[in-house]
Protein backbone atom coordinates (compact mmCIF):
# COMPACT_ATOMS: atom_id res chain seq x y z
CA UNK A 1 0.00 0.00 0.00
CA UNK A 2 1.00 3.59 -0.47
CA UNK A 3 1.83 5.91 2.41
CA UNK A 4 0.54 9.31 1.27
CA UNK A 5 2.52 12.52 1.62
CA UNK A 6 0.78 15.90 1.73
CA UNK A 7 2.57 17.33 -1.31
CA UNK A 8 5.18 16.37 -3.88
CA UNK A 9 7.58 18.99 -2.49
CA UNK A 10 7.54 17.45 1.00
CA UNK A 11 10.66 15.39 0.25
CA UNK A 12 13.66 16.21 -1.90
CA UNK A 13 15.37 13.38 -3.76
CA UNK A 14 19.05 13.25 -2.70
CA UNK A 15 20.02 11.93 -6.14
CA UNK A 16 18.49 14.52 -8.49
CA UNK A 17 17.91 17.23 -5.83
CA UNK A 18 14.37 17.84 -7.16
CA UNK A 19 11.11 17.31 -5.27
CA UNK A 20 10.56 13.55 -5.16
CA UNK A 21 8.14 12.46 -7.88
CA UNK A 22 6.39 9.15 -7.15
CA UNK A 23 8.57 8.96 -4.07
CA UNK A 24 9.83 5.64 -2.78
CA UNK A 25 11.02 5.21 0.79
CA UNK A 26 13.73 2.68 1.53
CA UNK A 27 13.74 0.40 4.56
CA UNK A 28 16.41 2.71 6.02
CA UNK A 29 13.99 5.67 5.79
CA UNK A 30 15.46 7.66 2.88
CA UNK A 31 13.12 8.99 0.19
CA UNK A 32 13.98 9.06 -3.51
CA UNK A 33 12.23 9.72 -6.81
CA UNK A 34 10.98 6.46 -8.25
CA UNK A 35 12.84 7.20 -11.48
CA UNK A 36 16.15 7.81 -9.69
CA UNK A 37 16.17 4.82 -7.35
CA UNK A 38 14.79 2.38 -9.94
CA UNK A 39 17.35 3.58 -12.49
CA UNK A 40 20.06 3.07 -9.85
CA UNK A 41 18.80 -0.49 -9.28
CA UNK A 42 18.51 -1.35 -12.98
CA UNK A 43 21.92 0.13 -13.79
CA UNK A 44 23.69 -1.87 -11.07
CA UNK A 45 21.49 -4.98 -11.27
CA UNK A 46 22.90 -7.86 -9.20
CA UNK A 47 21.61 -10.78 -7.18
CA UNK A 48 22.12 -8.82 -3.97
CA UNK A 49 20.08 -5.82 -2.83
CA UNK A 50 21.33 -2.40 -3.87
CA UNK A 51 22.89 -0.14 -1.28
CA UNK A 52 21.18 3.08 -0.24
CA UNK A 53 22.93 5.94 -2.07
CA UNK A 54 22.63 8.04 1.09
CA UNK A 55 23.69 5.73 3.96
CA UNK A 56 25.00 2.60 2.14
CA UNK A 57 22.65 0.26 4.04
CA UNK A 58 21.18 -2.64 2.03
CA UNK A 59 17.79 -1.76 0.55
CA UNK A 60 15.69 -4.87 0.97
CA UNK A 61 12.36 -3.07 0.71
CA UNK A 62 11.03 -0.14 -1.31
CA UNK A 63 7.84 1.44 0.01
CA UNK A 64 5.68 3.74 -2.13
CA UNK A 65 5.31 7.16 -0.54
CA UNK A 66 3.33 9.03 -3.19
CA UNK A 67 1.86 12.51 -2.79
CA UNK A 68 -1.91 12.99 -2.57
CA UNK A 69 -1.88 14.42 -6.09
CA UNK A 70 -0.06 11.37 -7.45
CA UNK A 71 -2.44 8.95 -5.72
CA UNK A 72 -5.61 10.81 -6.74
CA UNK A 73 -4.55 11.65 -10.32
CA UNK A 74 -6.88 10.27 -12.96
CA UNK A 75 -5.14 11.41 -16.14
CA UNK A 76 -3.89 8.50 -18.23
CA UNK A 77 -0.13 9.31 -18.31
CA UNK A 78 0.05 9.74 -14.52
CA UNK A 79 -1.98 6.58 -13.87
CA UNK A 80 0.23 4.60 -16.25
CA UNK A 81 3.40 5.93 -14.62
CA UNK A 82 2.04 5.14 -11.14
CA UNK A 83 1.15 1.58 -12.19
CA UNK A 84 4.58 1.11 -13.79
CA UNK A 85 6.32 2.31 -10.62
CA UNK A 86 4.18 0.04 -8.42
CA UNK A 87 4.96 -2.94 -10.69
CA UNK A 88 8.70 -2.22 -10.53
CA UNK A 89 8.57 -1.82 -6.75
CA UNK A 90 6.73 -5.15 -6.44
CA UNK A 91 9.38 -6.80 -8.63
CA UNK A 92 12.21 -5.36 -6.51
CA UNK A 93 10.53 -6.35 -3.25
CA UNK A 94 9.86 -9.89 -4.53
CA UNK A 95 13.54 -10.28 -5.39
CA UNK A 96 15.11 -8.85 -2.24
CA UNK A 97 12.64 -8.67 0.67
CA UNK A 98 13.51 -12.21 1.80
CA UNK A 99 17.23 -11.40 1.83
CA UNK A 100 18.72 -12.38 5.23
CA UNK A 101 19.07 -9.51 7.70
CA UNK A 102 20.86 -9.25 11.01
CA UNK A 103 18.92 -8.45 14.17
CA UNK A 104 20.56 -5.04 14.20
CA UNK A 105 19.50 -4.40 10.58
CA UNK A 106 15.95 -5.40 11.41
CA UNK A 107 15.95 -3.03 14.38
CA UNK A 108 17.18 -0.23 12.11
CA UNK A 109 14.32 -0.90 9.67
CA UNK A 110 11.68 -0.99 12.39
CA UNK A 111 10.78 2.75 12.58
CA UNK A 112 10.18 3.03 8.83
CA UNK A 113 8.23 -0.21 8.56
CA UNK A 114 6.10 0.55 11.64
CA UNK A 115 5.31 4.01 10.23
CA UNK A 116 4.06 2.38 7.00
CA UNK A 117 2.08 -0.26 8.89
CA UNK A 118 0.43 2.47 10.98
CA UNK A 119 -0.46 4.47 7.84
CA UNK A 120 -1.81 1.36 6.12
CA UNK A 121 -4.06 0.43 9.05
CA UNK A 122 -6.24 3.42 8.17
CA UNK A 123 -6.90 2.35 4.57
CA UNK A 124 -9.38 -0.21 3.23
CA UNK A 125 -6.57 -2.72 2.79
CA UNK A 126 -5.50 -2.06 6.36
CA UNK A 127 -8.99 -2.74 7.65
CA UNK A 128 -8.92 -6.12 5.91
CA UNK A 129 -5.50 -6.77 7.43
CA UNK A 130 -6.94 -5.92 10.87
CA UNK A 131 -9.78 -8.40 10.23
CA UNK A 132 -7.26 -11.11 9.41
CA UNK A 133 -5.23 -10.32 12.52
CA UNK A 134 -8.41 -10.47 14.60
CA UNK A 135 -9.21 -13.93 13.22
CA UNK A 136 -5.70 -15.20 13.92
CA UNK A 137 -5.73 -13.73 17.42
CA UNK A 138 -9.15 -15.27 18.13
CA UNK A 139 -8.00 -18.73 17.08
CA UNK A 140 -4.77 -18.44 19.09
CA UNK A 141 -6.70 -17.31 22.17
CA UNK A 142 -9.15 -20.22 21.78
CA UNK A 143 -6.30 -22.72 21.59
CA UNK A 144 -4.63 -21.14 24.63
CA UNK A 145 -7.89 -21.27 26.57
CA UNK A 146 -8.47 -24.93 25.76
CA UNK A 147 -4.93 -26.00 26.74
CA UNK A 148 -4.81 -23.72 29.78
CA UNK A 149 -5.26 -25.37 33.17
CA UNK A 150 -7.38 -22.40 34.29
CA UNK A 151 -11.05 -22.87 33.39
CA UNK A 152 -14.35 -21.26 34.25
CA UNK A 153 -15.73 -24.75 34.92
CA UNK A 154 -12.78 -27.03 35.85
CA UNK A 155 -12.69 -30.51 34.32
CA UNK A 156 -11.10 -31.93 37.48
CA UNK A 157 -14.31 -31.36 39.48
CA UNK A 158 -17.05 -31.82 36.90
CA UNK A 159 -15.55 -34.21 34.33
CA UNK A 160 -17.26 -34.01 30.94
CA UNK A 161 -19.42 -31.11 32.08
CA UNK A 162 -16.17 -29.23 32.71
CA UNK A 163 -15.36 -29.53 29.01
CA UNK A 164 -18.57 -27.65 28.21
CA UNK A 165 -17.03 -24.22 28.74
CA UNK A 166 -14.16 -25.15 26.39
CA UNK A 167 -16.64 -26.20 23.71
CA UNK A 168 -18.69 -23.02 24.20
CA UNK A 169 -15.58 -20.83 23.85
CA UNK A 170 -14.55 -22.64 20.66
CA UNK A 171 -18.06 -22.31 19.18
CA UNK A 172 -18.21 -18.58 20.00
CA UNK A 173 -14.81 -17.99 18.39
CA UNK A 174 -15.76 -20.00 15.28
CA UNK A 175 -18.94 -17.93 14.97
CA UNK A 176 -16.83 -14.76 15.28
CA UNK A 177 -14.45 -16.00 12.58
CA UNK A 178 -17.37 -16.80 10.26
CA UNK A 179 -18.83 -13.31 10.79
CA UNK A 180 -15.49 -11.72 9.91
CA UNK A 181 -15.17 -13.93 6.83
CA UNK A 182 -18.68 -13.06 5.64
CA UNK A 183 -17.90 -9.36 6.06
CA UNK A 184 -14.70 -9.68 4.03
CA UNK A 185 -16.43 -11.65 1.26
CA UNK A 186 -19.33 -9.19 1.14
CA UNK A 187 -16.95 -6.25 0.68
CA UNK A 188 -14.58 -7.98 -1.76
CA UNK A 189 -14.12 -6.54 -5.25
CA UNK A 190 -14.64 -9.42 -7.68
From TrEMBL:
InterPro entries linked to this entry: DUF1232, RNF170, Znf-RING_euk, Znf_RING, Znf_RING/FYVE/PHD, Znf_RING_CS
Domain named RING-type: residues: 13-56
Keywords noted in UniProt: Endoplasmic reticulum, Membrane, Metal-binding, Transmembrane, Transmembrane helix, Zinc, Zinc-finger
One Pfam family here: zf-RING_UBOX
Gene Ontology cellular component terms for the protein in this record: endoplasmic reticulum membrane
SUPFAM superfamilies for the chain: RING/U-box (SSF57850)
Compartmental location: Endoplasmic reticulum membrane
Gene3D superfamilies per record: Zinc/RING finger domain, C3HC4 (zinc finger)
Key word Endoplasmic reticulum present: yes
Topology term for the membrane: Multi-pass membrane protein
GO molecular function: ubiquitin protein ligase activity; zinc ion binding
Keyword Zinc-finger applies: yes
Domain of life assignment: Eukaryota
Regions crossing the membrane: 131-150, 156-181
Protein name (Swiss-Prot/TrEMBL): E3 ubiquitin-protein ligase RNF170
Organism: Scylla olivacea (Orange mud crab)
Phylogenetic lineage: Eukaryota, Metazoa, Ecdysozoa, Arthropoda, Crustacea
Amino acid sequence: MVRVRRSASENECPICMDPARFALETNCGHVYCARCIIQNWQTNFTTTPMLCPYCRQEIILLLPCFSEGEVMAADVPTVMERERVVAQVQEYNRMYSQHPRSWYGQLQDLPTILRHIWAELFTWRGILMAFKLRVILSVVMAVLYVVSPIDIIPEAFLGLLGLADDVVVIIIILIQVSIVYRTVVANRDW
